[in-house]
Specification:
globular, GTP-binding, 30 helices, Translation initiation factor IF-2, binds guanosine-5'-triphosphate, alpha+beta, nine-stranded antiparallel sheet
Length: 901
């Protein structure tokens, strides 16, 4: 009744457990070890694979008998006499040209008379140049005999150099194990031949890893072609993909272990958990599932939808279709893409994979994703709003954004509106800029409030909308009467109309000579804004922001427009929901955010989450800088107590408790990171330039060069232009300049698919974030030839990412203390991340790196500490480096290996 174990079946078949496991792995069954149990279909497979033995169960009896001496007699094709004999048998068979590259290395698995039962799917790869001679000769790995049908960009190689055998130092010369062993025919697609052992060699196969790597990637240096592994490793078997199931090969470790991990670890857990399911389905799969690259995956019918989140991984996909993630790694590999099971992939990759397997991939929109995320916490904001009845709802203030062409008077208008506030008159005016303010006006004898977003212009409006925040109820379109409708006037009205936001037109500067308000009315009719006096439904109000004239009329028009067309009511009796309209880090108060309550009531003490920031409301202030305890719908308040700074347009909500708020924030952050990582794959990086080139996606490598001094920029540019790039590709420097890398540089890089090279400079504030979000590759160098080397290597398709500096923290020098004992001590405020003792640092002055010392001493007050987090002050000693000034930024770094993607 009990399921048979591997060693029992092996015994029955007269082979060693190892051989059996290896064979099963070839057949796509992931078996962990000799004592693993086998399901019936797998047993059947095993028997089919060793028919001779199975046919003669008597072999069982024979099995123990033969002595090693019998080995040489082993005929290819005969059932193997016994485990001991195997190595010998292998030697006999070694030269056999027909041998698959299957089992490299010295293990019996390879030597098995597999010729007899080469599972169809792994029939010899298209190219099997006898190379994988498993013998002990290290021979073969000469670059020349490893045809390279299609150079692979080194880019997406998950096997980093640390896997690559005993080589002294990675060369940009492309130690990419995948470059060469790629099989011919880029996409074998279906089963069999295509099995490009490339990566397979690595995981687990004895000798595979070390040998596989040097095989060719090194080009001129076939380095560690480890004896025994020889070239055999390179075309390793797909068995390697079985990593999760149980790296079958004994000894497939050592250096190669790390390699295996790249796949093995990834798929490991799920594979285990799913094992029994898998086994249950095995029979079905066997009949119904097609085999791609030796793995069997149930197919969709071409229209089966699969919903995936942005930045999903192969493991996520595998879970949806209930297969082993490692199988998807294999299939994807056959489609010409390398990815680990836990790596975030972009939509295109999933689409390619989905269509290969008969699924339609639907990537969940960010909004839906967030909705689902909140639902996990029992929050359904839409349902909450729907459930509200008339009794729950109370009137709230309309929220207004001022837009218009540059210099038409937006800022001035907001100023005069502030001054027109009846309450301000009493309270002494609006004293602080908090990103939004509320004014009161008397309308039809009733005191009414209107909330203004204090960031004029449609850029902020659009940025918030892009984040899914519907903040504005009404737009005031400012048009200068002396200037008329201008391009940004039209842009602004298009944005408002697209968002379905009613418009009130403020015809400004009517005090000016030459002002022609009638002309504005007439011009705007072309854009569907027809003034009431012309029979339309848009209110036009003539104002002079400078003189404060017409402001009351404008406010009245806003209220009339609101009352005419909008249902401005909200339920104040629930937890607050709203939007962050502005936020920044304040020296004394930490993260400070202006939020606008859309519904519910926000109270001091509430646990809130805004975008990926969370915290507890410690205090709230209004635009008069008065502390407030509650904020009702329509009310903007400044909130103190968030642990980090949200972005303008991030929605906020009150959660049940701190823990929930934190968890929501963390989940959002993880989702965002995954989405970013996926996006990052998309844009071009130096590593995948060559691939993009091949695919005809680019013909030009666009570069932007920034440096600390013009001489360096010129030198770098000259040197770059001298690189011999051949005919296929053009190297263009689309922009160069002196100073820090700015947002503009990144934007330019985004548009032109360029790579930014920084020489002795750093990105300006927030620029790194932007580049990460946009997937722009920025590289920083302090030695010109390193930059040249990278570019050259990338042009040749051999760039190997190595280590990159990752910023860990940044601190601003606020004060300098002279100490005779310690030299200059920088009194700093940590602005971002954390500062750790002994960390490598850069001192940046006005965006230029002026020195690279190490954090020698780190103190909080009198105490030596090992790290100081953002928001705290500390004293930093930089050893002998004393050239510091107030205002310099000390950035700390760690060296991290760039993940291959
Ligand atoms: N004569 C006159 N000048 C005005 C009036 N309103 C604004 N101005 C002037 O126009 C210029 C531009 O005004 P801003 O309020 O800065 O214009 P803006 O639209 O906010 O400009 P940007 O912020 O650059 O987009 C300033 O010099 C104002 O003093 C007005 O009603 N009459």
């Amino acid at each position: 009744m009990a399921k048979p174990r591997v060693h029992e079946i092996a015994k029955e078949l007269g082979v060693s457990s190892k051989d059996l496991i290896a064979k099963l792995n070839e057949l796509g069954e992931y078996v962990k070890g000799p004592s693993s149990t086998l399901e019936a279909p797998v047993v059947r497979k095993a028997r089919d694979a060793f028919p001779a033995s199975a046919a003669k169960p008597a072999a069982k009896a024979a099995a123990p008998a033969p002595k090693p001496a019998a080995a040489p007699a082993a005929k290819p094709g005969a059932p193997k006499p016994g485990p001991k004999a195997a190595p010998a048998a292998e030697q006999v068979e070694a030269p056999e040209p027909a041998r698959k590259p299957a089992g490299p290395g010295p293990k019996p698995a390879a030597a098995k008379p597999a010729a007899q039962a080469p599972a169809s799917s792994d029939a010899a790869p298209a190219r099997k140049p006898g190379a994988p001679t498993p013998g002990p000769r290290p021979a073969a790995p000469t670059p020349s005999d490893m045809p390279r049908p299609r150079p692979r960009p080194a880019g997406n190689n998950p096997f980093s150099d640390r896997n690559a055998g005993p080589r002294p130092r990675p060369r940009p010369g492309g130690n990419n194990p995948f470059q060469s062993p790629r099989p011919q025919g880029p996409r074998p697609g279906g089963a069999g031949g295509g099995r490009p052992g490339g990566p397979g060699g690595a995981p687990g196969r004895p000798g595979g890893a070390p040998a596989g790597t040097p095989g060719r990637g090194f080009g001129p240096r076939p380095a560690g072609g480890a004896p025994g592994g020889g070239p055999g490793g390179a075309p390793g078997r797909p068995g390697g993909f079985g990593g999760p199931g149980g790296r079958p090969a004994p000894g497939g470790r050592g250096r190669g272990g790390g390699t295996a991990g790249a796949f093995g670890r990834a798929g490991g857990k799920p594979a285990r958990g799913r094992k029994s399911k898998r086994a249950k389905r095995a029979e079905y799969e066997q009949q119904a599932a097609p085999s791609i690259g030796g793995v069997q995956i149930p197919r969709g019918d071409g229209s089966t939808p699969i919903r995936l989140r942005r930045g999903a991984t192969l493991t996520d996909f595998a879970e949806k279709i209930d297969v082993n993630p490692a199988s998807l790694v294999t299939v994807l590999f056959h489609l010409g893409e390398m990815a680990t099971a836990t790596q975030s992939l972009d939509e295109d990759t999933f689409e390619a994979l989905g269509s290969e397997l008969g699924y339609v991939i639907q990537i969940v929109s960010p909004e839906d994703e967030d909705k689902e995320l909140l639902e996990d916490f029992g929050l359904d904001l839409d349902a909450e709003l729907e459930a509200e009845t008339d009794e729950d709802l109370e009137p709230r203030a309309p929220i207004v954004t001022v837009m218009g062409h540059v210099d038409h008077g937006k800022t001035r208008l907001l100023d005069s509106i502030r001054k027109a506030d009846v309450i301000s008159g009493e309270a002494g005016g609006i004293t602080q800029h908090i990103g939004a303010y509320q004014v009161h006006t008397t309308h039809e004898d009733v005191d009414r409030a209107i909330t203004f977003i204090d960031t004029p212009g449609h850029e902020a409006f659009t940025a918030m909308r892009a984040r899914g925040a519907k903040v504005t109820d009404i737009a005031i379109l400012v048009v200068a009467a002396d200037d008329g409708v201008m391009p940004q006037t039209i842009e602004a009205l298009n944005h408002a109309q697209a968002a379905n936001v009613p418009i009130v037109v403020a015809v400004n500067k009517v005090d000016k000579e030459g002002a022609n308000p009638a002309k504005i009315r007439q011009q705007l009719t072309e854009y569907n804004l027809v003034a009431e006096e012309y029979g339309g439904d848009t209110m036009f109000v003539d104002v002079s922001a400078l003189q404060g004239k017409g402001i009351d009329d404008l406010l009245e028009a806003v209220l009339l427009t609101a009352d005419a067309g909008l249902d401005l009511r909200a339920n104040p009796n629930k937890d607050a929901r709203g939007v962050a309209v502005e936020a920044h880090l304040d020296k004394g108060r930490g993260a400070v955010a202006t939020v606008l309550v859309n519904s519910g009531t926000l109270r001091v003490g509430d646990a809130i989450v805004a975008g990926t920031a969370h915290g507890r409301v410690r205090a709230m202030f209004d635009e008069h800088d008065n502390p407030v305890d509650v904020a009702t719908p329509g009310r903007p308040v400044l909130v103190i107590g968030l642990t980090s700074v949200p972005r303008a347009g991030d929605t906020f909500l009150v959660a049940d408790d701190d823990r929930t708020a934190r968890q929501i924030a963390e989940k959002r952050e993880a989702a965002e990171r995954a989405a970013q990582l996926a996006k990052r794959r998309k844009r071009i990086s130096l590593e995948d330039f060559n691939k993009a080139l091949e695919e005809g996606k680019v013909e030009t490598l666009n570069l932007i060069i920034k440096g600390d001094v013009s001489g360096a920029v010129e030198a770098l540019e000259d040197a770059l232009l001298q690189i011999d790039v051949g005919d296929e590709v053009d190297l263009r420097i689309i922009h160069r300049g002196v100073g820090a890398v700015t947002q503009n540089d990144v934007n330019l890089a985004t548009v032109d698919n360029a790579i930014i090279l920084g020489f002795n400079v750093r990105p300006a504030e927030r620029v790194q974030d932007l580049a990460d979000r946009e997937g722009v590759d920025m590289r920083f160098y302090s030695v010109i030839y390193r930059a040249l080397e990278d570019v050259e290597a990338s042009l040749k398709g051999m760039l190997k990412p190595e280590f990159e500096e990752r910023q860990v923290g940044g601190a601003e020098i606020m004060e300098i203390f002279r100490s005779s004992k310690f030299g200059n001590i920088a009194g700093c405020l940590v602005r971002t991340g954390k500062i750790t003792r002994n960390a490598k640092a850069k001192v940046v002055r006005n965006g230029v790196v002026i020195g690279e010392p190490t954090i020698d001493t780190l103190r909080r007050f009198k105490d030596d500490v090992t790290e100081v987090k953002d928001g705290f002050e500390c004293g930093i000693g930089l050893g002998k480096f004393n050239d510091i000034q107030v205002g310099d930024i000390i950035e700390t770094f760690e060296m991290v290996e760039i993940p291959r993607d």
